[in-house]
Design brief:
The protein is of the alpha+beta class. The protein has helices spanning 2-62, 74-91, 121-127, 169-173, 274-305, 309-394, 397-425, 437-454, 476-493, 548-558, and strands spanning 95-99, 105-108, 132-137, 144-153, 159-168, 182-186, 192-195, 204-207, 216-221, 227-235, 238-243, 252-260, 265-272, 433-436, 458-461, 471-474, 501-507, 512-518, 562-567, 572-578, 581-582, 585-586. The protein is built from 10 helices and 22 strands. Helix 1 packs antiparallel against helix 5, helix 6 crosses helix 8 and helix 9 runs antiparallel to helix 10. Residues 208-216, 354-370, 423-428 and 538-543 have low confidence and may be disordered.
Amino acid sequence: MQRWAGLLGFALAVIAIGGATWVYGYRQALDSLAERSVADLALASDRVSTQLQIYQELAVLMADHPALEQLDSPAGRRAAQHLLRGVADKTAALDVLYADVDGRVLTAASGVLGENIAAEGYFRRALQGALGTGAAVLADNGQRAYFYAAPDFSPEGGISGVLVVVADVEDVEQTWRGSLPAVFFTKATGEVFISNRPELLFWQQTGSVWGAAGTGGTGGVLRDGSSLSYRVSTTGEHEIWHLSERPYLPRRALHLTVGLPVIGLTGQILVDVASAWRLATLQAFALAALCLAFGTFLFLALERRRTLAKANAVLESRVATRTRALQATNSQLRREVSEREDAEAALKKAQEELVQAGKLSALGQMSAGISHELNQPLMAIQQYAENGDAFLRRGQVDRVGENLTRIAGMSARMARIIKNLRAFSRNENEPMARVDLVQVINTAVELTASRLETDEVALSWQPPDGNEPIYVWGGEVRLTQVFVNLINNSADAMLDQNTRSINITLEAGDRLSVAVRDIGPGIKEPEKMFDPFYSTKVVSSSEGMGLGLSISYGLVQSFGGNIHGRNMERGAVFTVELERWNEGGAT
């Protein structure tokens, strides 16, 4: 009787172990499935966001197009409509339109949005000076559309109109439809707006339909008029949907979500858990079979124990001896493990300290860069203000207005610098574009003219072919800063001598080259001239922090160019090489 009770207890233990193994294996399989599903959902979300971003960039770039400034005449509207139709055809946009501040559509590629969009949220957002977005179904043809609205700023600083790009959502879906598990993107109302399963489009949750059968249940009507209901349960940290039977959806699916605030949608994915279920079942059966085999072997061993009592006594003695040896070995291993854990903790602490030191160093360089970027415009504003005051006392009102205009320009430039700094703090960069190199050098000469006149420094600069533009690839504000730094450094180098002159030359070959040459004492340590905080001036003085050449070097490198300096027979020359710009970009 005792033997049968033992067998029954063993069978129940095998069942319990198999059940526990199934639960553990199922959760592990769900963890692995969730990792892959997160990647799939991220891939689908990136595809949607990236493809929609094309239309976002189109709206921003087209908002201030010159053709949209001539809409007060029929000919101007026809020219603008021709332009917008060409843009829409090339980008596969449903429509590209331009509206005034009252929401009246002045010109459009196809006119799918009607004649007035004043009530649209994306339009009102653009009127506030930000990029407006929205998603809706077009009333005339039922197409799903995503909207980007970019404000068109007038020269006075206000908003003169709004450019709207209407993206075709169905065209965005073409590249990934059916290539992943069921993925869908819902609006804030819970309505499915984008999906790789067309039958899920416009599915809207309507409320509880399964009652207390699970932890919660909701349902809704599909595009074809049929209903889709589901029950929600949880396994560990995972949410499992039990769906009503549909041809292209799993009956039991892992549900994951990700927020996409940039486009105002929520990404969701449903992944069939049948594979995890089968894997957990296989593991449970395999372990149960192993336990049964072990139990059978154990049962036979116990049966033979009666005849092997003496031999077992000897074996037990040997086992005890070996056990003591193993315990000693285990104790030694535990000590070694403890020592290794202490060493790993010390290493981790050292790594954290190095990371913190790197952060502090980067923060120090950032503060120095901000000071250096804003110093020159502030000095220029001060110089123009002093000049304006002098002209005002002389009664030269026109010159006062000229200086005030330049102060306004410097203020706008500081605004652009601060905008660049804000973009840098968000890990973004101002896009490079076509820049007139002649105008950049002219601006740098103007900014330093007052200082050079005060220090009695003669500057020679004659652009080739008059003032004809020569375009390069770069950023206007940052490139101007490079030449201001070079001119100021040359002037600083000659302060201790009686004769001071600077010569700027531009060679317009296949690769543009600008040389800034002085007649100062030359470069003392050429190998260190581009190192941060290297300066021959007094440390911590108002004359510099040793960052000018280092910052200039980084800026020119970011434009795909090069900067180098060398000593001449008298003085030094710094040469800036830049990429020429053409219609296709840099060459």
